[in-house]
Amino acid sequence: RRHHPSPRQQDQRSQRPAPAKSTILPVSEFKKMTSASRFPGKEERNAMQKAFQKKKEEEIKASEERKTRMSKIDESHRKNPVLTRLELKKQERDKRVVERAAALKMEEEDEIKQLNQLIGEAHCQAARDVQLQEHRRLQKEQAEGERRVHEMLKVERQKALDAADKMDEKRKQQRIRGRNEIQEQIQQNLVKKQAEKEVKKEEGKQLREQQEQMDLEDLRALEKKREETKLLQDEIKRINAESIDAKKQRKQQEKLADRTEAEYNKKKMQQEAEHEAEQRRIKKEREAEIKRLGAQQKRAADQKAKQEELHTRRIKEAKDREWRRAEVQRAVKKVEDRAVMEKSRLKQIQDKGLSMSKEVGRQKAQFDRDLRVLRQRVAKDQEQQERKQQDARRHLQAVQQQMQEEKLSAAEKRRELLKETGRQQEKAQLKQKQIQDLKEKKLKDLRATRVPEKHCQLVERRTKNRGL
């Protein structure tokens, strides 16, 4: 029994593409295909798009009508399952129409359009040389554009480098100016301290001369008192038995003076120990600060200047301490001398009764006044020394804060410059990647158009040779 193919199979066979054969086209047909392969203008594209859209809508409308008819036929078939031969043929024909409409709808997909375009270009292989020339021209323009982009990026990079060099030079000048200002301030402080040292030296000299004059007067008075004491020794021996009470009172006064002197010496030694400990602490802080600042500026010069300053201050402080110690010793000696004289005087006035007690009270008050003045002088010296140390610490903190602010500002400017350079590099890399992707896509599309491989290789080789 012979098998008869169905109409659908016949339609599918009729739609199969014929095997490719070499075809020789006439000149008129070749020109027609060449003109058809050119890229249409904007108005032509709009007209073609409108016509295509209209045709598409008509086909979709016809497809919907066919679907409606097929639905009705299917409904009728469900109600009347027995179909005639004509109804079967009509059903198959309508089915083919629906499939054809679906195929036409698929033709509107972008991928199918690209595929149809590639198939159409396959029939125009004879006109590919013209299109290759156009493609080469586009590549040349693209290469020129990339070259201009590279030149622009190169100019921008050079500008960024120039700006960075200018900023480095500016920061260098700022550091130099800051270092010069600090050195100038240190020099001014040294000059000022030297002047203060000279003034204090002159004042100390005057005080020593005054003290020497006072000591000379006290010595003369002491000699006079010794002579008087020698004259009164006989009388003192006579009244020793009667001066027991006066001796007891004198011993109490001596104990009081010794206790006061011991307390003063103890407090003075404690103050000197605290002062020396504070000086050692300040010395350690200064040395640590000098070591930290030395890494940023000229360590040797700054270290030497600060060591000289510290050495000068130590010498001055040592001289001040020596002068104050000498002052205390002279004051104590003066008090002791006065106490000795008062002892002699008490011996002389033991027979005077009430007048002797008044004199003792007066001498005690004078001793208390001298001791109070001496303590005030020591406290004033300590207060002045503390103020000087506070001024030095404030000045050092101000210099450190200024240097820290300059360091933070320079670091922030460097970070901003690095960020801007990174953004420029990322922008250039992104643009270069987009261009490279576009080139690869164009080369891939060129191979997909069934252009002979030798032409594709030629384009790729020329692209690489030009460094695009």
How would you portray this structure in words?
- The protein has 468 residues and is mainly α.
- Helices cover 88% and strands 0% of the residues.
- Helix 6 packs antiparallel against helix 9 (354-448), helix 7 (244-294) packs antiparallel against helix 8 (299-348) and helix 8 (299-348) packs antiparallel against helix 9 (354-448).
- The radius of gyration is 58 Å and the shape is rod-shaped.
- Mean pLDDT is 69; it is low at 1-5, 7-23 and 118-123.
The percent of residues in helical segments reads: over 70%
* Mean residue pLDDT: 69
What about the largest sheet?
A: none
Number of helices: 10
Distance between the termini: 68 Å
List the uncertain runs. 1-5, 7-23, 118-123
List the secondary-structure elements in sequence, H or E: HHHHHHHHHH
Structural class: mainly alpha
Please tell me what the overall shape is: rod-shaped
Number of strands: 0
User: What proportion of the residues form beta strands (DSSP E)?
Assistant: under 5%
Radius of gyration: 58 Å
What brief labels describe this structure?
TPH_dom; 468 residues; mainly alpha; disordered N terminus; rod-shaped; cell projection; flagellum
